[in-house]
Amino acid sequence: MMHPRILKIVAACSVTLLVTLLVPPHAEAALTITVPAAATIGSTLPTFCSTTSTTITVTSNSRNYDLRIRSTPATYPNGKAKDASSAEMFNAFGFATAAGGPFLPITAVYQNVFSNQPKGSNINHTVYYRQCVDWGDSAGNFTIGVDYLLAEL
Q1: Cβ-defined contacts of 117-122 (< 8 Å, 24+)
Q2: Domains, the chain, with CATH or none
């Protein structure tokens, strides 16, 4: 038996996170995820990193769940933000569950952000993002697409 999964698409880096929610098949579905429409990481100089966070709200009334993240594979297969000309940043975009990290590089394969979380309604999870700038990066605005997946266990 397959359980419903909701996919969130998010974008970020210099950074703006844009979100699209795929609606569950039934209005009464016990599995929901809400990700804010945007998150922006401010400008920084080479060799420095900037961070921001977003709060994701989850409801899973029937089972425990994992909250997973990946970079959008078709557009950001290397987990790196791109500028308008599709030039990638030197460093991968990072995510963490605590403000001070540790930050893991995002990849095009789903990774658990929060594992085996207890079922419940309107549970808030804060996810932190970080982008480090290298001397090889061009000046400009960069964006990355990020997918969130809520998987019941």
Answers
A1: 117/58, 117/60, 117/64, 117/65, 117/66, 117/67, 118/64, 119/60, 119/61, 119/62, 119/63, 119/64, 119/65, 120/59, 120/60, 120/61, 121/59, 121/61, 122/57, 122/58, 122/59
A2: 6-152 (2.60.40)
